[in-house]
Amino acid sequence: MRGESFDLKRQNFDVPKGYVNSHGFLVPESPMDTKPKVTMSGSVGEQMFDRLSCNLIDIKKRPRGIESLEVVLSSFDGDIIYGFSIYNLLKEFGDINNVPIKITEYGATINTISALILQAADKRCMFENQNMLLYPKAKKKAAGFIKEDQEEQERLTENYIDIMKQRIRVHPDVIEGYMEAEELIDSEQAKRWGLVDEILSNTQNQKKSVSFKDSTFS
User: Can you list the positions of beta strands (E) in the chain?
Assistant: First the structure.
């Protein structure tokens, strides 16, 4: 059966190991990497979430299993709500499947939403020349500001802080202070405070040749 397909519609055979039933035909099983990589770029939103969901479903079906998952992220803005959704999706995937996840952000600056998504990983990576910006802390109610919007903003801020402080090595007040001031955090600070696990050299970033699309996987 090597190098050819076998018509299952004409014969009553079970699918042997190493082969798959492809629309009624027996074909050799394609080898699949047990350490898949997902690439996400662009605005964090519904499209990115939907594509990531489909990718993770396909990855979970791989017959040889999964040893680890690497996520390459390059995002410049987006919707914080979908940021939480993507964080939850990746965290749940890793926990349920007992798969370690590595996330690396390739953007010039790790924006507030990317910083959140990074926290879903077992290994969080950033480059030495990058800065990180945390989600702005909810401000006091301003004139004309809708009460429901203010309450929602405060709820999101609390959820953001809860996630960020899970693995930090400094007092939460330090993180909240930077959120209040909207100050950038450099890579050394981010690692020292426990917001990332590894700092990559700039040469590793320059050598990386990735064609970023909203969400792809291999």
Answer: 6-7, 19-22, 25-28, 37-44, 69-78, 101-105, 109-110, 123-127, 131-133, 184-186, 198-200, 215-217
pLDDT in tens, 128-142: 999 999 887 654 444
**Degrees (nearest 5) of the Cα angle 110, 167, 186?**
30
Q: Is residue 94 classed exposed, middle or buried when 0-12, 13-18 and 19+ CB atoms within 10 A define those classes?
A: middle
Domain count, the chain: 2
Q: Are residues 71 and 37 in the same domain?
A: yes
Full residue range of the structural domain in which residue 93 is found:
31-217
Report field, pTM of the whole predicted structure over 0.70:
yes
- For the stretch 98-114, pLDDT in tens is 999 999 999 889 999 99
